[in-house]
Amino acid sequence: xxxxLVVSVSPHIRIRGNIPRMMWDVIIALIPATIASIYFFGxxxxxxxxxxxxxxxxxxxxxQKACKKPVTxxxxxxxxxxxLLAFNLPPGIPLWMAGAGGAIAISxxxxxxxxxxxNIFNPALVARTILLISFPVVMTTWSLPRFIxxxxxxxxxxxxxxxxxxxxxxxxxLFLGNVGGCIGETSALALIIGALYLLLRKHITWHIxxxxxxxxxxxxxxxxxxxxxxxxxxFHILAGGLLLGALFMATDPVTSPTSRSGRMIFGIxxxxxxxxxxxxxxxxxxxxxxxxxxxxxxxLIDRFIRPRKSKVK
Amino acid sequence: xxxxSFRGGVHPPEEKITSxxxxxxxxxxxxxxxxxxxxxxxxxxxAVKVGDRVKTGQKIGEAQGPISSNIHASIxxxxxxxxxxxxxxxxxxxxxxxxxxxxxxxxxxxxxxxDYFRLHPNEIREIVREAGIVGxxxxxxxxxxxxxxxxxxxxxxxxxxxxxxxxxLTCDHRLMxxxxxxxxxxxxxxAKTLEVTSCYIGIxxxxxxxxxxxxxxxxxxxxxxxxxxxxxxxxxSEKQLIKAILNREVPSGGLPLDVGVVVQNxxxxxxxxxxxxxxxxxxxxxxxxxxxxxxxxxxxxxxIGTLFQDVIDYCGGFRGRPGKMIMGGPLMGxxxxxxxxxxxxxxxxxxxxxxxxxxxxxEKSCIRCSRCVxxxxxDISPNLIAKYASKDRFDWAREYGALDCMECGxxxxxxxxxxxxxxxxxxxxxxxxxxxx
Lengths: 313, 437
Description:
The structure holds two protein chains of two kinds. Chain A is mostly helical. Chain A has 14 helices and no strands. Chain A has helices spanning 19-41, 43-66, 77-87, 95-110, 123-134, 136-139, 158-165, 171-176, 188-200, 207-223, 233-238, 242-249, 260-280, 287-304. Chain B is an alpha/beta fold. Among the domains of chain B are: 118-278, 3-Layer(aba) Sandwich (Rossmann fold), CATH 3.40.50; 371-435, no CATH class. Chains A and B meet through helix 1 of A and strand 15, strand 16, helix 9, helix 12 and helix 13 of B.
């Protein structure tokens, strides 16, 4: 027996996919929204995206070096966090603040819990929330997109326009993204194209996005109007960060439940909290908080909702 | 028509490179090494001594207890050794080495029975037990036990399993084409033994020629149906097969018997037919020798006890440097460290993967992508069970369904973090009976 044979447990074949491939697919899916953000908000958008991404990468590398762990900045996960954080920032944010956000996302949101796969909360949303609380004025000051044409010029975002002045932004502008808001959240079209790619590549399933969007839509339709069943459902679905949140943030596998039914409960919870904040809460938008709150419930959902309860005695 | 199947599962590259290669006979060899434990259950006890002359088909190992199986000489010659020998499924174990006299003389107990259809079910069971027949799909469970359901179980259906859902393997596929008549004879004998009237033959849709041959063979049988099933692993698992064909669900921890079904592999049906009609015990089987690491892949009829080295030599030897040599298929097979192990009753294939296909896999941390949960055919949470198993929390591993796992391995197959999920679940299962009372 001249050759040495490898002995290992089955299975002896594996899919070729791995975590970096998944992450790069997510980055590809974010390209349409990136292009839209640059189109509507100009070079400011690209600067913000670059700053948060590099800040996330550098923070990840520094922490991993300091903890004497292997440096994994090329697995793409920090890039995804950086881009998603940028998407959640207003176009007028000072770049140092964006950079601080990237560092917060990786350090407090991710590495503090033990790195990729161990964090409880979506790192990008952790950073956004910390920035929002620390710099409330900057984080809610909206410069308008370049091609603004409609009458609601003086209102910051479609949701504030509705909440404070009861003005409905035209659906066409919402769908294309020609409205005020965070740089990556405005174009429904670009986000949907990216999400379809993720669905096609089977990196996300329909469960969370569908239940999330449907719950928000239905609740806003029920209770969002002058009387029952008169709320502007499509407006609520397209406005604000709902699509970005439901398609790209809530679907983050690390911070969402693993069973199909668990994911649906998660989506319904996100949708209900979003609608509650939008309709009854102080701030005009509640997608980030709803996802963070449901992130906290994900382990609990996994504990009680099983694919099937084992019947073995 | 809706294609029948089950929930979950995966469709890996089929790699059935030998599917159009007719079964060849491996020429008689000088030596065979026949392990006494080739089946589920207690090992057989040697019935011969060193120096004895034996004939082909002579019983050389006596079954011990109800779940065990007889072992027969696969060639005629002289017993030269009874000692521990490397075994494909575990540590070296007791095996009988026979040196051939080159004559392949059959033992007088092997005789044709032209009257076989008048046999009483109990006589058939006795023949099957005596012939040492075990499930040839790989698990090697003694067949006479499956043919003897407890009195209180009502069996109404027999399913012949011709799925062969593991990539690479084609031995059952070739048998269904080349031994169609004999397999159906075997099925009739099984049905008669169990006194059932409803018979199905489940075949994956990628084996169109086998489906055609089987349908042609049973065109005049009123109570038999060939069911074309979706090509999906693990379609050939008993419980998934029953779910797909009959839409009956075997309860967790239960057996097919609990839903009135007995499942037999097509190769087993052939062996039953050979034993009942021709009186020949189980001394040979078809083995698919395949993989990119083999010069001339083939389907070979091989005597039990033939060393892997001899089989591989007959197929032209290794191509390039072999990386892994696997007994069975790539998803559930067992990697071997030496070619001096013998072919046993459960050897469905010898798969040699070249060095470049056996890269070391680095495990990353779980990102909870839940692909394992989505593909799991028994609806458990492999990710969580593996996590608890790695922390020795076996009570929680059981809570999440560890004992329902049938070890098909697709959780580990799909895992993008390359976590050895099925290995961790097997570990939890092994620990459970002792750690929790």
